[in-house]
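Our preliminary data section would be incomplete without showing what the modeling component actually yields. Below, a chain of 213 amino acids is followed by its predicted structure, encoded as tokens that our downstream tools consume directly.
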Amino acid sequence: MNQERLSTPAPLRRLFASYYERMSQGTAEKTYMEPLRKKIVGQAAGLVLEVGAGNGLNFACYDPEFVERVEATELDSSMLSYARTRAQSAPVSVTLTQANVEQLPFADAYFDSIVCTLVFCSVNNPLRGLQEMRRVLKPGGQLLMIEHVRAQKRMLALLQDLITPLTRLLLGNCHWNRSTVQTVQEAGFQDIRLEYLTPVGELMPLVIILARG
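Predicted structure:
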């Protein structure tokens, strides 16, 4: 839940950033998300783009043996302040840019890998954002994502629809009902591999998405 929060009032964005930082130091992060971050981010190689870096939790997971450097983007200034602190202790060089995923300030076919974790629940135009990511990814480059997505059971998906107006307001524009896998396909990524997980229950399923540009 890291990227497009500017449609949310500034005081709520600051409150959410503070809440997210506190949650990042809790049991759920250590138990569920940190192992997933290591699993996904550890596969990045070459020149890496991290989209929606949030408070920088992924930075510690990059492998300096394989990663040349990381260009990380984040739109929310409240999140950036936390990310800049974590970038200083990262095992690889990390450059942070305040930027919108729908208008990435990078050349075509520039990156070897793109990392994205818990971001596309909150992007205003997910298809445009993924198309931009594909544009800046080299042909055959790897897309590495972890996202929470729409529930596969109909009744749970309907419940997500009911909850989403509240989560958008209180949780940084977070949509609990996004069909992100379908959007990745629509954006033109190839060789898509999926792994569905339910670490916190079926109402918020996670999916690991591995794909090629």
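Residues 154-170 form the longest helix (17 residues). Residues 1-6 have pLDDT under 50 and may be disordered. Preliminary results of this kind motivate Aim 1 of the renewal.
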